[in-house]
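Slide 14.
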Amino acid sequence: ACGVYHTAAVTRTGALYTWGNGQQGQLGHDNTENYLQPTLIVANRFENAKVQMVACGDGHTAAVTSSGKLWTFGTGDNGQLGLGITKKSLVPLLIDPESFKHAHVIMVACGFSHTAAVAKISGGLDKRSNTLWTWGCGIQGRLGHGADCADKMVPTEIPTARFGDCNMCTVACGDDHTAAVTQNGLVFTWGVGNNWQLGHSHREACFVPTRIRRLEQHRVVTVACGPAHTAAVTEEGHLWTWGNGSLGQLGNNSFSSQPATRPVAQLQHTFTRIGRCREMDSHLSLAFAMSTHARLGEMSCGLTLPADLVRRICLSAREWLDGPSGTVDGVVRLIGGGLQPLSIF
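Slide 15: predicted structure.
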């Protein structure tokens, strides 16, 4: 995962490494030093549990462990650590499981100064067991709690009624907007919309999760956010982007922004089926990335990576929310960066 100036990575064995800018304690090494190479956060910081995923904000980091617990560290000025305080933490601290009503956290995302997580209730008869929680900076509705735009110091649940009583699948955070996908493939966005990053064809803020109407006919399986742009992949394998395109980050062969969701035409013609996780021969494994100024190759073109590299990436990302890849519709990962979203399938 990548923050603005720091990076975190999880190994197949569940170890967490961080490096980069550590001035806010976001590296979790009990200091505010910068690290020039990946450095291990010792396992006892997480009660010796394996780390399953990590997310990075501007100055904070969040990690989910195999026990379904969520740990955060770094700056907490707006409550983005979810610990009930606004002080920074130089080491990973556990968010009280009672904050999630003892549901197991299965996914986390970090914005510039807010955080979101999907939590799953273990057992029970309620099929709507995956719930969405947000906390941190609440300015202009990025937490999705309606007229209440106050900062939240602890995880606060967004009622499932906001999502049509649907089970939550995944969540992503931009600098000041949030996007989520339900398990029936609907996309909801909220927060700041001044760069059209919400996909509603207007630049107004949305204070509650608002469904993107244009994508209703396409079952979406995953979503990712950059600072002010958004991308989604459908079950048919099509990539859609919208929002700020001033640096070419939308992959539409221009530097134009897009007020509404729009498929990336070149990828639609090149790749016809990337929406489901599946086993495939290593020589057929392919990853693509969008870039600007030829950072990853020609602008918006497909980029073939070495088969062995992609095979190792896919093996390390075998888990997908509720179970192994293939049991839930979706690509393995869609990663939103500052300028370059990356999809691995």
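Speaker note: The helical segments are 265-270, 307-316.
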